[in-house]
Specification:
With about 450 residues, the chain is α+β, with helices and mostly antiparallel strands. The protein is built from twelve helices and 18 strands. The strands form three sheets. Strands 11-12-8-7-1-2-3-6-4-18 form a ten-stranded mixed sheet, sandwiched between helices. Strands 5, 14, 15, 16 and 17 form a five-stranded antiparallel sheet that branches. The longest helix is centred in the C-terminal third of the chain and has 18 residues. The radius of gyration is 24 Å and the shape is globular.
């Protein structure tokens, strides 16, 4: 049995979680999941501004902080913190933790190969719209293939203390040490599927230990010290999910079942680079306090394609807010919205969309929100989005003047007019698996 803990569910998760996972009890592997689709684009822009960047900058400092504990307790770290610059990330880790052996999984960054793919007849059509990638070729900012767990297992086989990847399937981070330690083969479909399910359960960190959980959320103990998840995996593919004793949060059938439903699409065909998992085959059982056991998981052969996560520059947006207080807070906010719309129309400004929400009344539930005839305060939030940056910038100058020229009691304008931000859009596509060649490099 091996114990695999996840200490980050996204870039920005609790900085103390990985440290506590190492300190509070035995684990064999610490996985850290930093990446999301939009994160890749942010990192690409950072590397464009500075070739030494493009990775999760929290990660090297964390490894420097825990390096001695990793060696003393023989804990291996696997993280996709490399983003779009795993080599730079690895060298910074090496600088801060010179005694650790580092392996890098490369081969996911496809930005420089897009034109070659197009020349070979790969249209890389948008999986949602069917449009060919050529329609937005000049706007692409990043392109990364979702790699699987076997290259990570290869990196572990080098004896590395820390394995750094770029884009990979989130669940692959947890599956990889199972492949490495249990010598699972590429066609062990049921076992691989079990590892993917385990990885899916823990990939969002505390979403499976009571965080962001609907079921009895008010009864979840000690959110301030919530325990991050640990998978106890066995060679036959069965596993349990738990957390360190004495930590906050909760692990039960409800918390695990909620996370299982997260981003799965067809539950009979959860497609990953390594296997297609059948979530309807999962059998869960409470196996003691804060411990849920999973058995019976089935899988089928991996797809012949890998998914590309492509981002591209779409245009510009700006969002501004004002707060109005009672009496008539909602009526004041609605008048403010009409004034802004009238003024941008008079200026002849054209946008793809102007969207308004009224926080305190209907921002979350919209037209199905319960009646709230006289709220004590309302925040009006108005956003504009379009391809003309100058038009969006002009929009940003139309909200703050309402403090004096609009309805009374306007406040909440301390940060001034809103900033114009670039809109990055997402383009999912497929590419034949054999066109992607992952490889491992080691930094001693």
């Amino acid at each position: 049995m091996i114990r695999i803990a996840n200490g980050q569910g996204f870039w920005g998760d609790w900085l103390e979680a990985p440290v506590r996972l190492i300190e509070q009890g035995p684990i064999d592997y610490l996985i850290l999941d930093y990446l999301a689709e939009v994160t890749m684009s942010i990192l690409q822009k950072q590397r464009k501004a500075d070739p030494a960047l493009g990775y999760a900058r929290d990660f090297p400092a964390l490894i420097g902080r825990v390096a001695k504990m990793l060696r003393d307790r023989n804990v291996k770290v696997i993280a996709n913190a490399g983003g779009i610059n795993p080599v730079a990330c690895a060298h910074e880790v090496r600088r801060l933790a010179p005694d650790l052996k580092i392996a890098i999984v490369l081969g996911d960054d496809m930005l420089l190969r897009i034109d070659d793919f197009l020349a070979q007849g790969e249209e890389m059509r948008n999986m949602d719209t069917g449009e060919p990638l050529s329609t937005i070729r000049d706007k692409i900012t990043s392109a990364n293939a979702y790699l699987g767990a076997f290259p990570i297992a290869q990196a572990l086989a080098t004896g590395a203390d820390v394995v750094i990847t770029g884009r990979c399937a989130d669940a692959a981070l947890a599956l990889a040490p199972m492949i490495h330690r249990f010598d699972w083969k590429p066609d062990d479909w049921n076992r691989l599927s079990a590892g993917i399910v385990a990885g899916h359960i823990v990939e969002c960190g505390t979403q499976c230990t009571g965080g962001n959980c609907i079921a009895d959320w008010q009864g979840i103990p000690d959110f301030a010290n919530i325990g991050y998840p640990i998978v106890e995996a066995e060679p036959d593919g069965t596993f349990s999910v738990t957390k360190h004793p004495g930590t906050g949060g909760r692990v039960n059938l409800e918390t695990i079942a909620e996370q299982l439903l997260y981003e799965i699409g067809d539950p009979r065909q959860y497609i990953t680079p390594d296997v297609v998992a059948d979530f309807t085959s999962i059998r869960l059982a409470q196996d003691g306090p804060d411990r849920v056991r999973a058995t019976g998981i089935l899988g089928s052969p991996r797809p012949e394609t890998l998914k590309l996560s492509i981002s591209y520059a779409w245009g510009w947006k700006a969002v501004g807010t004002l707060v109005y207080s009672a009496p008539d807070a909602l009526a004041k906010a609605q008048v403010a919205d009409r004034i802004v719309r009238d003024r941008v129309r008079q200026l002849g400004l054209a946008f793809d969309s102007i969207y308004t929400e009224f926080f305190g009344v209907n921002a979350t539930h919209g037209p199905v929100a319960a009646p709230c005839p006289d709220p004590p305060e309302v925040q009006v939030r108005i956003g504009a989005r379009g391809h003309d940056r100058k038009a969006v910038d002009r929009f940003t100058r139309e909200l703050i003047p309402l403090v004096l020229s609009g309805p009374p009691t306007g406040t909440g304008y301390g940060e001034g007019r809103p900033s114009v931000r670039e809109v990055i859009a997402y383009w999912p596509a497929l590419i034949p698996r054999d066109m992607i060649q992952p490889h491992v490099e080691v930094i001693e």
